[in-house]
Design brief:
27% helix; 12 strands; two-stranded antiparallel sheet
């Protein structure tokens, strides 16, 4: 298997926010430093999405997919490596924590040996719209100063959206029964050169299944791995992948904001998770939303996207 990029999807300081002046543009080093301050620097562990499960499977495109994108995974089935994870840098985080995102990172292995990555979380928004704001948020969290946290929220109400979404829903009963969202805009280009803005969404076959607060608490801190092992021993877990179609005027630069709810979707294919993989398979590189096949383009206006590449590289280097 070729070397690839592993997930750090939507860092779960998401529930915790704060206020601090940032004079210089935020760097990947600064972001990883403050994440380590919040969660601790754990040896050979990601600064974000530290707790995870490596899996394998495949992707089968629909006949409609190639009409939107010329990327190889949308014209023929491809194998994939994936990683489920919890947000944040605590490798002992509780699987039942309600205000924490779950994530899925997918690494499509393409016929020519290249890769194309797709990262999604269980909320449609991220808690910051640019790296400086994200550093400001994390710095306040790290200070453990309640007044700074309150001041940050007062000044940046858009940062509350992710936690509000998570707290209004049940805890997913399984990684396999959660629905996942891409918080960033991508542009798809087909073989005729037509370009379309989209956001990604994956819906579990069989629908969302959750746990009420009492059931989630009783399930313990590590129920996801056992549940997934038992589920996959009986059969694969599948999701339908959709491209939510953007319209003129829809923002493509702010992952704290959602598009209008009436946007149409096109089913792009079926993601199937068929088994577990050793953690080392997923730890060999970095899942990166900017590593995509020709026919998929990250929004050039989204400042969080390049920050993710930089901070994931820093985190990867440190855990080696």
């Amino acid at each position: 298997m070729s070397a690839f990029r592993v997930l750090g999807a939507g860092v779960a300081a998401l529930a915790l926010l704060g206020n601090a002046a940032v004079a210089e543009p935020a760097t990947g080093e600064q972001l990883v430093d403050v994440l380590n301050k919040i969660f601790g620097a754990h040896e050979k562990t990601r600064a974000s999405h530290a707790k995870g499960i490596c899996v394998k499977g495949d992707f089968k495109p629909t006949t409609d997919a190639a009409m939107l994108s010329k990327a190889p995974q949308f014209s023929a089935p491809v194998p994939l490596i994936g990683r489920y994870s919890l947000g944040g840098g605590n490798p002992a985080a509780s699987d039942g924590q309600k205000d924490n995102v779950r994530a899925i990172a997918l690494h499509f292995n393409l016929p020519d040996g290249s890769v194309s990555d797709l990262l999604m979380i269980t909320a449609p928004v991220f808690p910051a719209k640019n790296p400086d704001q994200f550093l400001e948020l994390l710095t306040a969290v790290a200070s453990k100063d309640k007044e700074k946290v309150a001041a940050y929220f007062a000044a940046n109400p858009e940062s509350t959206g992710q936690k509000k979404y998570l707290m209004a829903r049940q805890v997913p009963a399984s990684y396999a029964t959660a629905d996942y969202f891409g918080v960033h805009t991508f542009y798809l280009t087909n073989s005729d050169g037509q370009r379309q803005a989209v956001k990604w969404k994956a819906v579990p076959v069989g629908g969302f299944v959750g746990l009420d607060d009492e059931a989630a608490e009783k399930s313990g801190t590590d129920f996801y791995r056992k549940e997934l092992e038992q589920r996959l021993a009986k059969g694969a877990a599948s999701y339908e992948l959709f491209a939510v179609i953007g319209q003129p005027g829809d923002q493509d630069d702010d992952p704290t904001a959602e598009w209008p709810a009436d946007r149409k979707s096109v089913k792009m294919g079926t993601i199937t998770i068929s088994g577990l993989e050793p953690a080392a398979t997923c730890d060999a590189g970095v899942f990166d939303p900017n590593v995509v096949a020709d026919g998929i383009e990250p929004s050039p206006n989204d400042k969080i996207l390049p920050m993710r590449t930089e901070s994931y590289a820093v985190s990867f280097g440190r855990r080696q």
